What we know:
Layout: E1 14-18, E2 22-26, E3 30-36, E4 41-43, E5 50-52, E6 56-59, E7 65-72, E8 81-89, E9 92-100, E10 106-114, E11 116-117, E12 120-124, E13 129-137, E14 140-146, E15 153-159, E16 165-171, E17 177-188
Antiparallel strand pairs: 1-6, 2-3, 3-17, 4-5, 6-16, 7-13, 7-17, 8-9, 8-16, 9-10, 10-11, 10-12, 13-14, 14-15
Amino acid sequence: xxxxxxxxxxPSPLRWLNQPESxxxxxxxxxxxxxxxxxxxxTDPDGSAQxxxxxxxxxxxxxxxxxxxxxxxxxxxxxxxxxxxxYTDDTTWAKLCLESSPQGRPTIVSVVTRGVSDDxxxxxxxxxxxxxxxxxxxxxxxxxxxxxxDSWDLIRYFALDGxxxxxxxxxxxxxxxxxxxxxxxxxxxxxxTDVRSGE
Length: 199
């Protein structure tokens, strides 16, 4: 069993679900993960295939919270992605992604898996970096994305069984591998008052 990982900006120890090709913690609030080729976390809605090879670093957060990071990666192959992750077990989890679409556009994507995965593309963004945020409000969760310094856009508002761990994932399902930077990682034990207000 690998040693717990400490990120100063994250308030609890983290653990690897799958080991990356390489990783680094830079300063107080930056994590770098390199995923190998053929790595993914996805269960096809028709049940035909389950993929769970992507490296992910997750930890336990208690109570209400927000966790955000600016994610950066060079998107080369379809479905390359930087991901904020909620993870209960291998059949119950949720991803908020900056992902390369099959058309090569950086896209905000969310996936919620309850036995099998769904797959929802929200909108394309102009560049290879964006801010992503997970919030917990009691028994429910909210995914937000932000492309400028103003307001957060609601991507998804949903419930998820269990008490999921929270963290960071890199994937390159069809490519030869991808390195992801999670910068300006921020945690707050703050409950959002309105998931749709942009706060």
